[in-house]
Amino acid sequence: MLGRLVEPGATWPGPLGERSVRNSAAAYACAKRFELEREVLFRRLPNLVGLSVECAEPGSFLTADLGGVPVAVIRQTDGSLRGFVNACRHRAARLLEGCGKLGRTIVCPYHGWTYELDGRLRARPGAELGFDDVAKESLPLHLVAVGEAHGLIFARTHGDAPFTVDAALHGAQEELASYRLGSYCHIETRAQEQPINWKLVIDTFTETYHIPWLHKATIAPHYFFDRWIYDAYGPHGRLIGVRKIVTPEFDKPDPSDRNLLPHATTQYLLLPNAVLCHQIDHVELWRVTPLAVDRTRVSTSLFAPTPPATERERAYWVKNLDVLLGVTNTEDFPAMARIQQNLMSGAVPEVVYGKMEPALVHFHASLDAALARGA
Length: 375
What we know:
Layout: E1 21-24, H1 26-29, H2 31-40, E2 47-51, E3 60-66, E4 69-75, E5 81-85, E6 99-101, E7 105-107, E8 114-116, E9 121-123, E10 143-149, E11 152-156, H3 165-169, H4 173-177, E12 185-194, H5 198-203, H6 211-214, E13 223-233, E14 236-243, E15 264-270, E16 274-279, E17 282-292, E18 295-304, H7 311-344, E19 350-353, H8 358-374
Antiparallel strand pairs: 1-19, 2-11, 3-4, 3-6, 4-5, 5-10, 7-8, 8-9, 10-11, 12-18, 13-14, 14-15, 15-16, 16-17, 17-18
């Protein structure tokens, strides 16, 4: 554990990391480094592509872009998952978009080539004679390695060796399993593109230092910015920010009676591409897709602990997502866009991460270590 919660009355700031770190602006602005990141981090490493509840029923699917490789994950009739390159073997047309539910087959929207859910080519409508010298058995969809556990789905496009989710989580699996994510209900996912480097999206989740200034009129009155909990699980991190209403918990004489979860925003920073967040009464999942050195697709999903029983209850969860994106879209992302412009200008040689930003330091150290191994 790299840090502990600083109780009221302690000297600010805390808990501190071991040291401050300088990072080159090239980490955010260099096109060559960006391509290395897409290859090493987004193709060779397992990436979190979704929660199991997004792809729960046989025939349901979700899609992702991993380092430029289009991926589709499909629930099979036996309950297992299979992952494929999301491209038809005929002319490489995109087969599936977003997420949804299939019938018994996958049908290419370009020429109607039809595949079984397990990727086998079933038919080439109106053209079997035109391809009678190419056996259907030789044209299954290209496989992508997929792992599922604890309500999480990971995929990796590089190589065909299997992997396990537990190994990918580096010790965080026991705690994540306690959330019982497989029982949650997917409410909604919203995607948008931002003119920023993908790492800036993750950066904004790694420290509470910015809250009193950037979020002065929104969440600052409710959250401490100088008290947090931080832990690392291998390359991953967990940062817990706390609301000011947590203070009475420290009046309880028995530490085992203190309950932080209802007063905390618990963020799991899952290298390289995702932030899984438990906030008060629901779970959020942020997934980043690097498109260019200065352009990123951000997908934000909200999950409720149980299916909404009424439209009013559903509206409550949708409003939570509205509020969440209202803050990030009007405060965080505009600030990140201006930062990106400054870094791309060439006039800013470096940024500095302070000791009060241990999750930020660890995130970039983990990236650098993974890139060094991959290179």
